[in-house]
Amino acid sequence: MNSAWSIEFSRIVLVLVSTLVFGLVSGYWLLSVAVNGGLYVGWNAYQLRRFERWIRSGAHTASAPDASGVWELIVQHIYRTQKANKDRKKRLAQLASHYHAIMSVLPDATVVLNQNLEVEWVNKISQSMLGIDANRDVGQKFSNIVRVTDITRLIESAPDAEEIEVVSPADINKMLVIKKIHYGEGKILVTARDISQRIALQKLRKAFIANASHELRTPLTVISGYLEMLVDDEELPPNLNNIVQNTYLQAQRMDNILGDLLVLSKLEEKGYSETSGDILDVPQLIKRLVNDFQKTKARSTHRIEFDVTEGLKVKVVESEFYSLCQNLISNAIKYSPPGSSIRIAWVLSDTAGACLKVTDNGVGIKPEHLSRLTERFYRVDQNTTRKVNGTGLGLSIVKHIIENYGGYLNIESEIDKGSTFTTCFPSFRVSYHQDASDKV
Ligand code: ATP
Ligand code: MG
Asked: Which ligand places an atom closest to the C-alpha of 374?
């Protein structure tokens, strides 16, 4: 038994002995019990009152009631619990200020919003990137401070995985990539990263490629011209014939590469546009394309089947749509054996607006290459395809064209069975009049 309880028991024993002695001496037992019991209960009631006042006033250690026995024990317990609480609070406060210090010096703008989309916390750099001030704007609605439609749409309705690239609302020279993450109970963490440097480098790279391609084309045209004259020259010694022929072919190949690079540069510079293009009668264009292919050897070596929905039109730049179709169809011809069939479909889609599908029964592509096919100069290193001439820029051009129209390219392929390349245009670009629904 600890000393506090010993003191308390001693008190009780003292009260009992006093009651006994007083009762024996005076013979008034009832009075003895009442007086001694009253004293004990009264003393405890007095301690209880002091104790209650102490707790009510905040239970500060300095003003703890000076009590002994079990009351002292209770005061000690409360004191220890309070100290442990204080230490924990201190540790939590230190941790919180540590995290705040880290978050404040992060190079990314960081903003915490509550469920009403009001600013709850913001770091310093958010001022120069998003125009949100840590002192002025806490408690304000985010959309009242940052008035950029794309950013407010992202915060209010877009899924967490989405991120957008926008010009900084605080500085038009900065490009930002903005993301948001939901956490806790309805809280949102918004981050903005400055990508101006990366964009500037990309621009520099694109400008370099465009300029180099442009500058190289002029001397190459001259070289090709002379080589063409030499190829046709009947007086050329026979031992040089092969060399000149080969050099001419390589010069033409270089010209094709430069041409494709210039097309890519133009497509990149143009970028996404909701309004560009005119309504194009795709079935008509496909008929023209078929005629062009009929003039080439391919028509006689491959069976070309069509499933083209008449009256299904799309808003695009004609030359770009032509180039897209031509790239896909020429790939289908190049990478499938003579005699096999190629199917060209132009159809309405359940999920997207309208899709052009080119299906072949050719060599197919291994799954590990699929995601890389649209990279510049990427060619599958496969015995069957290596022999075929190409620059590896065709699908890159296709991807740029379709993405500039807000659409997408999908590739499905099975090795030795064939491939389907699908390009889909968003429904807002598509118009369809069913009355002209004959098939080509
Ligand atoms: P070019 O720039 O002349 O079109 P390319 O055809 O080699 O050259 P892409 O059209 O970009 O370049 O195609 C990239 C690669 O994807 C090809 O080299 C080929 O390996 C593979 N590929 C493309 N289409 C098909 C297809 N229909 N079947 C099998 N492989 C294909
Ligand atoms: Mg190609």
From this structure: 1
